[in-house]
Design brief:
This protein is mainly beta and about 200 residues long. The chain is built from four helices and 13 strands.
Length: about 200
């Protein structure tokens, strides 16, 4: 479980393809050395299992389904990625509860400068739009964000300078794929509702 408050940006240093999975090595800050083998780590909002090495890096193994259904399959050498360690009980919950289970791929459709801020519009898969509400929470590449405007097929989000500089948002270009995780609360409520009410 994560909060969507990105701790740092790492960089893809190595990529090795196997028959059924891809192994990637990511370098980053000193705290990576403190990771234990098997520690969970969110990479662009996707929960992975880390295997730290002796230097300032770690390796993770990605199954084919992960490569196909998330933006991690688009990573190349030198790509920057958002990194977040899992939430500890009793720690501050600064964003919202993020599972690290990507619901689908979105796409950057516009980027507009608004003074020092940026306004991003992301197109979402049609089946996810029902879970996005005005001023509700959504995770984009693992970043906890607030939906400023909800359109028929997209969501508009304002990004402050700090978030822009300290996440992979500063690399986005129109057309780029992004990992989307909608607020889990809506999905659980839908599941618990009687089937007749879900269709209303």
């Amino acid at each position: 479980m994560f909060t969507g408050i990105v701790e740092t940006v790492g960089q893809v240093a190595e990529i090795h393809d196997g028959i059924e999975f891809r192994k990637i090595r990511i370098t980053g800050p000193d705290w990576i050395k403190s990771l234990n083998v098997g520690s969970s780590l969110a990479i662009n909002g996707c929960c992975t299992t880390s295997i730290p090495d002796k230097s300032e890096g770690f390796t993770c193994e990605l199954m084919r389904i992960t490569l196909e259904k998330t933006s991690l399959g688009k990573l190349v050498l030198g790509s920057e990625v958002n990194l977040e360690r899992p939430l500890k009980f009793g720690a501050e919950l600064g964003g919202h509860l993020v599972q690290g289970h990507v619901d689908g791929l979105g796409k950057v459709v516009s980027i507009v400068e608004d003074g020092d801020n940026r306004v991003f519009e992301f197109q979402l898969p049609a089946e996810l739009m029902k879970y996005v509400v005005h001023t509700g929470s959504i995770a984009v590449d693992g970043v906890s964000l607030t939906a400023a405007e909800v359109k028929q097929q997209s969501v508009v989000i304002g990004i402050i300078p700090h978030t822009y500089r300290n996440t992979v948002f500063h690399n986005y270009m129109v057309g780029d794929p992004v990992n989307i995780e909608v607020d889990m609360v809506g999905k659980y409520i839908e599941k618990l509702l009687p089937e007749k009410l879900r269709a209303l």
